């Protein structure tokens, strides 16, 4: 049986810069069941996000919004926007590691 | 214009960005719905530090003029004001003057006479030393304390105005307000606040409309129309085939904000934790329960950019599977041979220049965060070199040129030729910049850091 990812259970997974110094991502889940999985702190928490994006778990903020079936994640941008090693100015492709996370 | 209290104020936002374009009929419709003001954002930091650092607009003049021509005709016909925030992308003084020049030409061409206010928000480093030394400039996370040298290194510094300088210009009779750097919401909120609308619904509506049609079910169909009143606001798309739904509107609070519930403005904090979104019909949404907590200390956020060096780019491409089967090995060899050749020929060490080697088609976008390591079918190799001056950056990139053309895989005993997409191979990118300010000034008054120049209305 093939593995199911967060992206499979979502209408949209997106990432974007929030000002020059933060990246923010949203998981728009299809339904309450998908939301329950994405919002489960034993599955997706600050440490998991920190591992995916190699940032300090203490800097990761997670907002769980059941009325919209949305989990929103923000963290400070590790590489300065537009600098030599920044490869995604608008941080618009950074959702992929999150979307490909395999659900339990 | 007086600051009398109205029962409601309707805002027409044509699009998320001046110069992005919108269907002309959406403006006609918004005017017919009874718009009291047209507000549009002219800038953003989203596209990186170059536009502030170099003080150059991201949009082309023709696209800005096309949008402004339609908007000036509309506001002149309806007798309502037009507000443009963050002129010229970064909101520097050059940006305000650039848009003001386009507006002056259009008014002359259209035979219109309107009173135009320009509000400048650029700051001199010398003027920020006093508040810095007085402890009135504080870092916002994730940045740390500010020192004077960082201010002095900035090529341009702007302060983000709130609604107050814009409202003041409107109260003084301006029919067109061209603002320097302003918060995305301030240009949409200013007229409603001037007319006495409550702060909670006004700032919430301003946040929802600031990206135009982004809060609708079809963001490509133009902007939005919001009516603010005593207890809340009502929002609908300007295009009749698009819809606002409670989800599309509520979800927009998530967009480009780190925190979806609380948003700091110069004058206080918008709080939408208790906001209720209700469908009035299939395409209009009513929002109530939004709060605004006025801050004890008014604050103004600074943005600044400095030059980090000069960049030269080279780009080549690989299609041969014999190289692509171990593209990581090829890249490792490139790093070794390239840095050796730079040392041999230019006598430069890693302290004298910096570079980034990106494998587009393999893992250029996410680098070592990429969850996939599948072998690619083709790879674009980008070499980006940064040095203290342009000539040095280009010299380093030229040393790499034979390698970008002929570097073999580690197990090849012949020299392949790789695919340059054009000639010449190197592209000089000019100065590179970085944002270095994310700091808030405790402002003495909401308008003290900004300078307003009011133009005269001419008889035509």
Cα-to-Cα separation, first versus last residue of chain A: 13 Å
Main β-sheet of chain A: number of strands, strand sense, barrel status?
A: 4 strands, antiparallel
| Percent of residues in β-strands of chain A | 25-35%
Query: Which bin fits the share of residues in helices of chain B?
Result: 25-40%
Features:
heterodimer, A: 104 residues, alpha+beta, four-stranded antiparallel sheet, 4 strands, B: 460 residues, ten-stranded mixed sheet, seven-stranded antiparallel sheet, 13 helices, globular
Describe this structure in words.
Chain A is of the alpha+beta class and about 100 residues long. Chain A has one domain. Chain A has three helices and four strands; from the N terminus they run ββααββα. Chain A has a four-stranded antiparallel β-sheet. In chain A, strand 3 and strand 4 form a beta hairpin. The model of chain A has no long low-confidence stretch (mean pLDDT about 95). Chain B is built from 13 helices and 20 strands. In chain B, helix 7 crosses helix 8. At the A-B interface, strand 2, strand 3 and strand 4 of A face helix 10, strand 15, strand 16 and strand 18 of B.
Task: Describe the structure concisely.
Chain A is α+β, with helices and mostly antiparallel strands. Chain A is 19% helix and 27% strand.
Task: Chart the SSEs and their pairings.
The complex is a heterodimer of chains A (104) and B (460).
Chain A: E1 10-17, E2 22-29, H1 32-39, H2 46-53, E3 61-65, E4 70-76, H3 96-99
Antiparallel strand pairs in A: 1-2, 2-4, 3-4
Chain B: E1 9-13, H1 24-32, E2 37-43, H2 50-53, H3 61-78, E3 82-89, H4 93-110, E4 116-120, H5 125-133, E5 137-139, H6 148-153, E6 154-160, H7 164-171, E7 176-179, H8 186-194, H9 199-209, E8 224-228, E9 232-237, H10 246-252, E10 262-265, E11 268-271, E12 276-279, E13 285-288, E14 291-294, E15 299-318, H11 321-324, H12 327-346, E16 353-360, E17 379-387, H13 390-406, E18 426-435, E19 439-442, E20 451-454
Parallel strand pairs in B: 1-2, 2-3, 3-7, 4-7
Antiparallel strand pairs in B: 1-8, 4-20, 5-19, 6-15, 8-9, 9-13, 10-11, 11-14, 12-13, 15-17, 15-18, 15-19, 16-17
């Amino acid at each position: 049986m093939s593995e199911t990812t967060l992206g499979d259970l979502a209408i949209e997974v997106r990432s974007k810069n929030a000002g020059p110094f933060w990246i923010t991502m949203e998981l728009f889940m299809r339904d309450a069941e998908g939301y329950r999985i994405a919002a489960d702190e034993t599955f997706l928490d600050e440490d998991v996000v920190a591992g995916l994006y190699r940032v300090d778990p203490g800097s990761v903020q997670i907002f769980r919004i059941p009325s919209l079936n949305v989990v929103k994640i923000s963290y400070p941008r590790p590489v300065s926007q537009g600098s030599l090693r920044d490869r995604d100015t608008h941080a618009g492709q950074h959702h992929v590691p999150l979307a490909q996370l395999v659900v339990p | 214009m007086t600051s009398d209290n109205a029962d409601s104020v309707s805002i027409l936002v044509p699009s998320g960005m001046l110069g992005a374009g919108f269907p002309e009929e959406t403006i006609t419709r918004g005017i017919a719905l009874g718009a009291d003001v047209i507000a549009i954002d002219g800038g953003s930091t989203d596209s990186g530090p170059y536009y502030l650092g170099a003080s150059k607009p991201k949009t082309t003049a023709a696209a800005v003029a096309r949008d402004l021509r339609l908007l000036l005709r509309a506001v002149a016909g309806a007798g309502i004001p037009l507000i443009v925030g963050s002129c010229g992308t970064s909101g520097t003084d050059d940006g305000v003057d650039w848009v003001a020049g386009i507006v002056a030409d259009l008014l002359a061409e259209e035979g219109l006479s309107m009173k135009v206010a320009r509000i400048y928000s650029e700051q001199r480093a010398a003027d920020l030393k006093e508040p810095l030394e007085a402890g009135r400039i504080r870092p916002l996370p994730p940045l740390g304390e500010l020192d004077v040298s960082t201010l002095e290194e900035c090529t341009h510094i702007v302060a983000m105005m709130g609604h107050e300088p814009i409202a003041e210009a409107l109260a003084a009779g301006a029919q067109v307000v061209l603002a320097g750097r302003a918060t995305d919401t301030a240009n949409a909120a200013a007229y409603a606040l001037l007319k006495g609308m409550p702060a909670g619904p006004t700032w919430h509506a301003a946040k929802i409309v600031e990206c135009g049609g982004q809060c609708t079910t079809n963001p490509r169909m133009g902007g939005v129309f919001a009516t603010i009143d005593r207890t809340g606001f009502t929002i609908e798309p300007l295009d009749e085939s698009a819809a606002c739904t409670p989800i599309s509107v509520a979800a927009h609070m998530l967009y480009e904000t780190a925190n979806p519930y609380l948003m700091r403005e110069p004058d206080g904090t918008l709080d939408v934790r208790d906001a209720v979104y209700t469908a009035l019909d299939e395409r209009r949404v009513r929002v109530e329960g939004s709060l605004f907590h006025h801050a004890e200390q008014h604050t103004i956020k600074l943005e600044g950019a400095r030059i980090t060096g000069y960049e030269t780019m080279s780009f080549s491409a690989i299609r041969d599977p014999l190289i692509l089967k171990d593209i990581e090995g090829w890249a490792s060899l490139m790093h070794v041979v390239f840095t050796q050749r730079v040392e041999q020929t230019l006598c430069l060490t890693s302290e004298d220049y910096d570079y980034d080697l990106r494998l587009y088609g393999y893992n250029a976008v996410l680098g070592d965060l990429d969850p996939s390591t599948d072998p690619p079918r083709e790879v674009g190799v980008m070499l980006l070199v940064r040095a203290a001056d342009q000539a040095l950056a280009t010299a380093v990139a030229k040393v790499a040129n034979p390698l970008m053309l002929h570097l073999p895989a580690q197990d090849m005993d012949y020299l392949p030729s790789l695919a340059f997409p054009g000639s010449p191979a190197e592209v000089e990118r000019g100065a590179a910049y970085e944002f270095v300010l994310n700091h808030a000034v405790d402002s003495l008054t909401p308008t003290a850091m900004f300078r307003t120049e009011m133009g005269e209305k001419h008889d035509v």
